[in-house]
Specification:
Helix content: 40-55%
Shape: elongated
Number of strands: 2
Distance between the termini: 117 Å
Number of helices: 3
Mean pLDDT: 80
Strand content: 5-15%
Largest sheet: 2 strands, antiparallel
Structural class: mainly alpha
């Protein structure tokens, strides 16, 4: 008799647990009420300039590190052109150095060195 009572009690407990689990599971596709907390973030450009491109709209989710906008300062174009000209000048100078001196310049330099004699420390 004890066995039947224990089995009946166990079956009743399992049925109750199953009913509770089913009741706690929300139906598929349903929405749940809740509150989402967020922080207001103010974004500003590091320098003044003209807005060239705006990559996002208000309220749109943005990944960390993504570009939000692009600005162009009035002096940026001139600075960029100056830097590009300097890079081109240095590249040309490097190409000249890589070529080495022409043979006639090397002969003149060797002759000058012979006339000066050995170097003294």
């Amino acid at each position: 008799m004890n066995f039947k009572l224990a089995f009946s009690s166990l079956a009743s407990s399992l049925t109750t647990v199953a009913a509770l689990l089913v009741a706690c599971t929300p139906p598929a596709g349903s929405t749940l009420p809740g509150v989402v907390e967020a922080e207001l973030v103010r974004v500003a450009a590091p320098a003044a300039g003209r807005l060239v491109a705006l990559s996002v709209t208000r309220g749109e989710p943005v990944a960390a590190g993504a570009a939000l906008f692009r600005i162009e300062s009035p002096g940026d174009s001139a600075l960029l052109a100056e830097a590009e000209a300097r890079v081109a000048q240095l590249a040309a100078h490097q190409a000249d150095l890589a070529k080495g001196k022409p043979p006639d310049e090397l002969a003149v330099t060797a002759a000058q060195a012979r006339r000066r004699g050995p170097r003294r420390s």
